């Protein structure tokens, strides 16, 4: 190797070494799969997304384990639901991580529910008897109109925390908005026959979905959000359904289906599993699949 070749080789090596640093992706830690999926839609290759929970875990009940704390330590942005969904674990996670960028009030701390009108907000805050929805219903991701609101807010936040790539985030946001608006119109039209359908919920997981599609919740299997139904409570629901029949009982993919299955066996109400978030069912492989599959499952149950 002569002098010039050696210099060229060294220069190439230097370029390779420098490349990852100059394109360092923004590290996003999403609390739930839907916000991880949204960050990927809006950030593409500009973001490196990691998700704290899977669709098969109850987001109310997560442990702030060391591997999660390590991810929070290096995150540039946390994207969560808020509305106290993560109250049992996120504050501990943020405190243990000791990362100033993602603390509450910082641009690196994003809570989707801050940008969405919450339903089931109690007039009096009461956490008695284990109510896990004391700050209003946190399951905002079950209405695609809320995903649109969260997308606008998260897109703006990405532009703020990674200003060097603001134009690219803005372009991706606009593209997502176009595709989402088209899909939303399609889902709304497909689901129109479901309007007014009486349903039972296992957990109050779908109030935003009902609000969007006009489904009527006539009973809930959990006596309070987060409290497992007793045999006596299930019997009282069954008795109430004799007067007000329901077409289906809905449960989220992460939940133990036994209370819903009990209602199927004892009151003849078919149980329907909904993905609830990205990854909850094989077809719910991204945000679009989440609502394609949710609407398809509801329509299939509605025809029975
Ligand atoms: Zn809940």
TrEMBL record:
Concerning Gene3D superfamilies, the annotation shows: Nitrogenase molybdenum iron protein domain
Q: Name one GO molecular function term.
A: metal ion binding
Q: Which InterPro entries match?
A: Bact_metal-bind_prot9 (IPR050492), ZnuA-like (IPR006127)
Signal peptide interval: 1-24
Q: Which UniProt keywords apply?
A: Signal
Pfam families hit by this protein? ZnuA (PF01297)
- Gene Ontology terms: biological process: metal ion transport
This protein's superkingdom? Bacteria
This one is known as Zinc ABC transporter substrate-binding protein
Look up and give the organism this protein is from: Caenimonas aquaedulcis
